[in-house]
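Render this sequence as a predicted structure.
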Amino acid sequence: MVYILGGAQTDFARNWAREGTDMLGAFGEVVRAGLDNAKLDAGEIETGHVGNFVGELFAGQGLLGGFFAMVDPAFDGLPTARHEAACASGSMAILAAMSEIEAGRYDLACVVGIEQMRNVGGRQAADHLGAACWRGHEFEDTDFVWPRAFSDLAQEYDDRYGLKYEHLMRIAEINFGNARANPNAQTRKWEFTDDSFTPNDAANPVVEGRTRKMDCGQITDGAASVFLASERRAAEYASRRGMALEDLPRISGWGHTSAPISYRRKIEASARDDYVFPQVRRAIEAARTRAGVSDIGQIDAVETHDCFTTTEYMAIDHLGITAPGESWKAIEDGSIEMGGRIPVNPSGGLIGLGHPVGATGVRMALDAAKQVTGAADGYQVEGARRVQTLNVGGSTTTTASFIVERPGRG
């Protein structure tokens, strides 16, 4: 069992280039803040992992594990590594740190997810992010790869089950609404009109195909950190603070799958399946099996990937909140809202909170830990004891899911 001792997140509304800072500055900030929040010293950390997608393209910077020793002299000599799986990069960094801990190599790890994305124009950013598709073979006829890809997903749902745009817009409206209560959300101060969540070409213009502006997650500068510990190290940590081990949040289950990088190959493979992306369903179920969770009724909240509204629409049925093709039911009956049967993205998600690609998986795990310890500030789900995350990279080429729980709560 791997425990989460704490962590930190930067304010996702910030623009690092305008502030005169860079990836190293933000990296150091989120590590130091995480150490302070967890009441740990840099010298206690035994291994470091970084999740990042395209630092080389946005900032000309690779070898991000070398940032640790720039932050604190105690990190000089620390074993480190950087991990990449597009939007699931942060989750891959967590999985790598967990593997080291479970193997007995180390007892205490620092995991950082980070991405700088607002230092270039929108078209250039879209081109950089397109590195997660099958370059030269798909979406060559578009300037905005991912709005197009998830427009195709909307069409796929429409062809298989039927899809109403009003349901996608309700997802966006919920996530933007949740973000207002999150002090780190990129859109917390954004204002909307009566036409914002409608197919109004002026208030909500088309980006690509069936994807409009309000369907999209945000281009974000951001970083997040978490500190992961073995059971032995977590027990020592808790004892020193007069706590029980059961008071600490733990990662009780994980799932990780990969699929062909081609979007079309995935869709063709699932043509006779109940789920559009069966590999996503398998990752979700694997996390629950390892955690001893049998169904969605044992989950109190979800932090899921909503790079577009269609991604969350897909996640709703793949998570089992509804039967396949019936995600609209959970949207219409309020199940996914705060106070509903299974709140989805109480943080605001990628649409409301923001989506610094390499940081998202780490941020999700941190928010899950906050929820189960009652520390989620204004976006706390009352009585939350178990939260599931769902983080995907590319067109669900990589999928990761974690179950974070605190059995001693309540």
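Summary. The chain is about 35% helix and 15% strand. The two ends are 21 Å apart (CA to CA).
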